[in-house]
Design brief:
Bound molecules: ligand BV8
Helix content: 25-40%
Order of helices and strands: EHHHHHEHEEEEHEHEEH
EC number: 2.3.1.286
Keywords: Cytoplasm, Hydrolase, Metal-binding, NAD, Transferase, Zinc
Low-confidence stretches: none
InterPro entries: DHS-like_NAD/FAD-binding_dom, NAD-dep_sirtuin_deacylases, Sirtuin, Sirtuin_cat_small_dom_sf, Sirtuin_class_III, Ssirtuin_cat_dom
Number of helices: 9
Largest sheet: 6 strands, parallel
Catalytic activity: N(6)-acetyl-L-lysyl-[protein] + NAD(+) + H2O = 2''-O-acetyl-ADP-D-ribose + nicotinamide + L-lysyl-[protein]; N(6)-succinyl-L-lysyl-[protein] + NAD(+) + H2O = 2''-O-succinyl-ADP-D-ribose + nicotinamide + L-lysyl-[protein]
Main location: cytoplasm
Shape: globular
Structural class: alpha/beta
Radius of gyration: 18 Å
Length: 228
């Protein structure tokens, strides 16, 4: 049994990391076009660094919750029966890995990684970034940026995701609003491939009608019940 699991900010909400579009979510307070685009970074790098430094310091102390732990059990359970999980997350936090998940694909990158815009070197980053941050590779400043996918930028590993989707026996979406593409389009692709689809979310998402079924409630309750 091969299970494709797509997760979004809702799976980390009960770990204290805010979501984007919910009441009091990040995009309530901040404008994504002023902070999560390459143009915004070009225009005002200090402002973009401040935004991601704030989120990074919250992430460093955050702990995984029962939903993350249940997905680790699902991974182990499937592998014990010769199956596998493809855990595709839109999240830039590392709570899946902190919980013990071993096969995590970050399609929108990772905030605890920095990338140099000059030499493209990547390095682990648990502290704040600024325009003065020196790249340990090319020793230049002004090029370090969070290794995340901004709007208008190509998500990571689209071919790997397409292969995993094609091989899946079940598609599960967890804690995502279905508002951002290409991720929001995967349920329709799964359906077109004849793969059963289920949504596990606090409430029906923007693409709820495309799913065969849905279970609604907090992830820390719904995911352990689904995995048992
Ligand atoms: C706004 C939207 C319309 N715009 C887009 O989709 C754009 C443009 C676009 C592309 N194709 C289109 C087609 C149609 C229309 C527009 C487009 N897409 C892009 O720009 C993408 C890149 C988008 C990535 C942007 N980066 C993010 N994040 C990283 C940075 C950062 O984090 O700062 S997006 C960010 O928002 C997305 C949605 O967020 P969610 O995770 O779903 O969170 P949200 O708050 O929205 O919802 C939370 C959900 O959880 C639930 N919940 C809350 N609490 C709980 C709880 N306790 N338990 C359970 N559930 C819970 C809630 O009910 C809710 O449903 C995630 O992907 C997340 O990563 N790039 C691209 O298209 O490149 C070219 C391309 C691509 C492919 C092929 C050829 C060319």
């Amino acid at each position: 049994m091969k299970v494709f699991v797509l997760t979004g900010a809702g799976v980390s909400a009960e770990s204290g990391l805010g979501t984007f579009r919910d009441k009091g979510g990040l995009w309530d307070e901040f404008d994504p076009m002023e902070l999560a685009t390459p143009e915004a970074f070009e225009r005002d790098p200090a402002r973009v660094h401040a935004f991601y430094n704030m989120r990074r310091s919250a992430m460093v102390d955050a702990l995984p919750n029962a939903a993350h732990a249940a997905l680790v059990r699902l991974e182990a359970g499937l592998e014990a029966k010769g199956g596998e999980i493809f855990l595709c997350t839109q999240n830039i936090d590392n709570l899946h890995e902190k919980a013990g998940s071993r096969h995590v694909h970050h399609m929108h990158g990772e905030l605890l990684v920095a990338r140099c815009g000059w030499c493209r070197r990547r390095e682990v980053c648990t502290v704040g970034l600024s325009e003065e941050t020196i790249c340990e590779g090319c020793l230049r400043t002004g090029g370090m940026r969070p290794d995340v996918v901004w709007f208008g930028e190509m998500p990571i590993g689209l071919d790997t995701i397409a292969d995993a989707l094609r091989d899946a026996d079940l598609f599960v979406a967890i804690g995502t609003s279905g508002a951002v593409y290409p991720a929001a389009g995967y349920v329709a692709e799964a359906r077109a491939l004849g793969i059963p689809t289920v949504e596990l979310n606090l409430e029906p998402s923007d693409v709820a009608r495309v799913f065969d079924s849905g279970r609604y409630g907090p992830a820390t309750e719904v995911i352990p019940a689904f995995v048992e």
